[in-house]
Amino acid sequence: METVRIDKWLWAVRLFKTRSQATEACKGGKVKIDGHHVKPSRDIQTGDEIEIQLAALKKKVKVLQVIKNRVAAKLVTDLAEDLTPAEEYERLDMMRRLNYEKRTRGTGRPTKKDRREIERLKRE
Predict the structure, then answer these.
(1) pTM metric for this prediction
(2) Which of 4, 36, 99, 107 lies 20 to 30 A from 50 at CA?
């Protein structure tokens, strides 16, 4: 049975832009297998379920195939199955929509009072 380092696999299936970002995520405790934080050198096998904390998104992925080299984005669906619940994506979308502010054209810059109000609303 073939195995590969987790940081290399995460980079190969395009969950991280660079391998060093994948390594830092593992070192920072953002990657878990079976509820345990893993080191970047941890070998993975087919069937492992990996939990990854990507900013505000908690992503869960199942390893379908172990690879060592980076592949095209179209081929990622053959290598990893996304088990992230739909509610997680909806929560992320809602956070993006709530964090957006629209000002009508020509109203100028917000006053200090407006800015404080905007910041207060974003915190809630």
Answers:
(1) 0.77
(2) 99
Cα–Cα distances in Å, from 115 out to 43, 109, 119, 123?
49, 9, 6, 12
Q: What is the pLDDT of residues 60-89, one digit of tens each?
A: 999 999 999 999 999 999 999 999 999 999
Architecture of domain 1-84: Roll (3.10)
The CATH 3.10.290.10 domain(s) of the chain lie at 1-84
The pLDDT score that the predictor gives to residue 81 is 95
DSSP letters of 48-115? Answer: -EEEEEETTEEEEEEESS--SS---GGGHHHHEEE---HHHHHHHHHHHHHT-----TTS-SPPHHHH
Torsion of CA 44, 54, 57, 11, to 10 degrees: -50
For 34-60, write each residue's pLDDT tens digit. Answer: 889 999 999 999 999 999 999 888 999
How far is C-alpha 7 from the chain's CA centre? Answer: 14
Residue 80 has phi, psi (to 5 degrees) of: -140, 135
